[in-house]
Amino acid sequence: MREKAIVVSVAHPNDLAEAQRSIDELVALLDTAGVDVVDVIVQKRRRIDPAFYVGKGKAKEIGELAQHLNVDAVVFDARLSPKHVRNLSSVIPVKVLDRVDVILDIFAQHAGSSEAKLQVELAQLQHRLARLRVAPGALSRLGGGIGTRGPGETKLEIDRRRIQSKIVKLKRKLRKIEKVRQQKTKQQRYFFRVALVGYTSAGKSTLMNRLTKSHFKESEKLFTTLDTFTRAAWINGATILVSDTVGFISNLPTELIAAFRSTLMVANEADLILVVVDVSKPDFERDIEVVESTLRKIGAGRKPRIYVFNKIDLLPSRVMLERLMDRYAGEEVVFVSAKTGEGLEDLKAKIYDYYRRWKEGKPLTPVSP
Ligand SMILES: Nc1nc2c(ncn2[C@@H]2O[C@H](COP(=O)(O)OP(=O)(O)OP(=O)(O)O)[C@@H](O)[C@H]2O)c(=O)[nH]1
Ligand SMILES: [Mg+2]
Known about the structure:
With 369 residues, the protein is of the alpha/beta class. It folds into two domains: 3-140, GTPase HflX, N-terminal domain (Rossmann fold, 3-Layer(aba) Sandwich), CATH 3.40.50; 189-359, P-loop containing nucleotide triphosphate hydrolases (Rossmann fold, 3-Layer(aba) Sandwich), CATH 3.40.50.300. It is 46% helix and 17% strand. It is built from 13 helices and ten strands. It has a six-stranded mixed beta sheet with strand order 6-7-5-8-9-10, with helices on both faces. Helix 1 packs parallel to helix 4 (99-110) and helix 5 (114-132) packs antiparallel against helix 7. It is globular, with a radius of gyration of 22 Å.
């Protein structure tokens, strides 16, 4: 059954467009998590309230509205501090959640492999532990549904010491899995390795399926892929290993980056990174920035890369495509549609170029857009 929620955002008066973009993304995240947004409240202020995030009066108002609209949760488009959660929960009679809770919830619902499940559980426990320090009351009345789902026994685990010992155990299990993976990557280093990275829903899995003739799940929902899959592609007779990876998003919770470290390492170990970008989004350049900063965080900032500007079939006109091509002329950019197949031959030719240089032992110089 779908839940209902109110979304709350604090917007700087000079940056309303950015706030709206972020709200739209949060609404899409909530939709993926199974939650309908029945109202959006935007409060314009220059800085957030240190105690109540939106200010106490506003928080009370939101609490009343939540009751009136009979919603299951109030979701703040932010990363709330534990203190915010505690104070807000004292005046809002339903679940108080933030962007991190929503992303963690989606990850919990989509985790398939045992490794992904362990990684999500670890991230959730760490997130919960941080909250517990200040807001134990707010947690105990979470109930069920969004914000409370977990792949393991985490559900209503609220005892700090048990959480801590669980974290230790999870980390140990994950290290074991990582060792096995490292063993595998050692065997793979004789091949040229390409990693697909990019914003969530950019079309990484669709491209992966095209390049390697596979059938991994593609979906308009966010964070469909949480595991790393590697398959071979044959380009001009060369065997090239292609890996699909978990998507990025702005403000990807640090807990998740830490927990998914070994999954994200695939980008680090690759010889070449394909940054897949959905150029049908008007603000795709922002997505590129997010991807770049995430790559830096995981230590892959200097890897050679090709920018794969995807979904060109969705651009409103050919003129628009040509304008984009002009703007990026001379850059390491290929324009494709993973859906129609347009541009894929260009992409393969480019990948092959890198492969040849790698094979000849020539350095693959990093590029920037
Ligand atoms: N029109 C169009 N749609 C595309 C194209 N490439 C991918 N899509 C669609 O975009 C959506 C997301 O594609 P995915 O391949 O699942 O994206 P992803 O990057 O793997 O996303 P996550 O795994 O969720 O991070 C799907 O509905 C695809 O069918 C394209 O070139 N054109
Ligand atoms: Mg995917």
